Each structure stands twice: as C-alpha cells, then as structure tokens.
Amino acid sequence: MINEHPDNNRSPQPYEGLLVVTIEQAVAAPLCSCHFAEGGARVIKIERSGGDFARKYDSVVKGESSYFVWANHGKESLQLDIKDPNDASLLHNILARADVFIQNLAPGAIGRAGFDTDELRARYPRLITCDISGYGESGDYRDMKAYDFLVQCESGLVAINGSPKGHGRIGVSICDIGAGMNAIIGIQRALFQRERSGLGSGVKVSLFDTAADWMTVPLMHTVYGGKAPQRVGLHHPSIAPYGGYETRDGEILAISIQNEREWLRFCSEVLQQPEVATDERFNQAEARVRNRAELDTYIEAVFSARTRQELEQTLKSADIAYGAVNSVETFAQHPQLRYRSVTLPDGAEAELVAPPIRTSDDAGTNSYRPVPAFGQHSHIIREEFAEQPSFRRATS
C-alpha cells in the first residue's frame, strides 16, 4: 500500500516511483528519509520490537513525540526482526525492488546482521545505499557513541558558542540535522549518477564530518591566524557592530553592519553621531572588532534610551540590517512562519512547520501525509513482499 497524498488533484511529485527502505532511529536518518517521503517517494521504515526510540523522546504533540512527528510523517511502519531468518528474507525481497536503502545503526551492526551495504549493492546493482554514523566507519572514534550534543562538544562547536562566561550548546540537534541534509545531497547525487550509469552507489555521512565542515572558518583562524574565535555571546567574533543590544522596553534587537557604507549610515542616522564613524578606534572593520567594548558603549547608550518600535523604524529608514531576539513563544506567532497540518497515529491533527523548500508544484498542498503508528503497515507489506520478485523493476 502506498500512502496517497491528501491532494488528489496534485501534480506528479519528484520522487514518485522511488521506493526508499530505512532501518533508522533518532533524527539524522529519519529526517533524511522524511525528505523523500515529502517528495512523493514510498518510504518503508523498519522498526524493531519497541519501535524507534525517538517515539518516546517526549509526548508533547497530543501524546506523540515532537521529534518523531517532525521526522517521520508520510512513511509506512514495518515491524521486523532482521536477525530472524524469515524476516531477513522478507527484507531482501523488499530490497530487491528498492531504489534507496538508508541506515544509521551503530558502525558494523548492519553488516553483522547480514546486510552489509557493499554486499547489498553487489547483490542489487541499482540499489543506492546510505550509511549515517557518528564518526565514520574507521579511525579511533569509530565505535564512540555519537549523540548530537557529544559531537557538538568534540567538534569544537560548543567552544565557539555561548558567552565569555561559559560554553553554549546549540539549542537544536544541529549535527543530526546537518548529517541528514548531507545524506539527502549524497543520495540525490547518487540518483543522478544512476541515471547515467544504470548502477547504484554508496553514500556515507557522519555527524562529526558534518560538524567539522561547519567549523572550517574557526579552524582556519586557529591554524593560520594563531587564535581561535572567542565566545562573544550575541556578538560576532570577527565583525562589529554585529550583535544584540537591549532597548528601553527590555527587548533585544540584533544589528549587522557588513560594510563601510552601512557603518557611515549607522553612525549618522541611528547613533546620530557621525564623528564616531571616523574615530580612529572605529574607522576600519578590524579596528571596530579590537575596540568592540568601547564601541558598544555608544550603541548601548542609544538603544537603552529608545523602545524597540522606535529603533526598528529608525533602523529600517537607515537601511540597516536588524532582527529581534525573539522568544520561542514570540516566534510561534511570527508573521512569516508557515504551518502545515499532519494527522497523528490516533487521528488527531497537529501543526508542523511547513517545508523550507517551496516549489511551483506545491500550490494547494496544505497537509503532510500521516505519521505512522508503530508497525501500522506490517501486515500489508508482509503480504506484498512475501515472494521474491522474479525481475528487477525499472525506476523512473
């Protein structure tokens, strides 16, 4: 059974005709496969006894986990024990027809269970495999447990976040999310390559490699400049003024000055002190960073004397980039925030953030496909794939 899109008059979706099979848990791999489900692929999520543990992370979405609802809508759930010979045979039947196989078990676990991805591609030449791990499949850290926060720590991300008083964890599962996005890119590349060669290929992504890529600029400052960026809270470590300042009514507005033209306008129209622009402490970008503390006294004096609304009007008139430091409660009511509804396993409706990628084919689409209950599609999938296919179906 293929879950149908709620809009029966929709245009064909980009991944229609693709069968994606996943043995996944937590965030990175589920977020990756969810992207393909949103694009029209059929995604079969294989869950062992007890289900994906992300189902139990919390229960804030009308009894369901926020993480699971976010990263698993539009999929079919199949309860399977891949170490059981009969279930293993069923999985091979499914993979024989599949286009993509994604897994994020512990390094080596999928091979020990009899589903090494290199061997799978040899057996099913058009299959694309994607292995997502914490630190990769080789090296001293290969077997380290790699939850998002731990990778943030190991990669140095927390060392450049926070305030001078202490380190700061990024408040969302950024390494998981980034690894999932990189996996999507890798699979899309493999799909394009298969169109040319007719053969599948292997994609490997790790949370640590993802975080390391993001750390390139701080790393270059350290290796080539001799000094790592310092923790500066809401400020930018290498641009000034670029940070948050409190207003008279207790709000915080963030501003960003990117070039000298903006700097001159900021001093004359916002600070109303054009002489500050030519002060030798502030008349060059690097000088402003060196003398950030002195510069902030001028800005703080102006911001603390005016309300957020007054400053927003002035900043907008001066064409200075700014943004409010919103609470999550304020963000939930943001005029630019788009929602899309989803049906939960018990039939209740919830609202998720709408996809960040919009296409011309999205017109009229206002809901996601449902979130599956644990093992909801097991019976019908077992019936469908009970027999080994006698031919390898072509992909679109």
TrEMBL record:
Domain of life according to the entry: Bacteria
Listed InterPro entries: CoA-transferase_III_domain, CoA-Trfase_fam_III, CoA-Trfase_III_dom3_sf, CoA-Trfase_III_dom_1_sf
Recorded GO MF terms: CoA-transferase activity
Keyword Nucleotidyltransferase: no
Signal peptide: none
SUPFAM superfamilies (UniProt xref): CoA-transferase family III (CaiB/BaiF) (SSF89796)
Keywords assigned by UniProt, alphabetized: Transferase
Name of this chain's protein: Crotonobetainyl-CoA:carnitine CoA-transferase CaiB
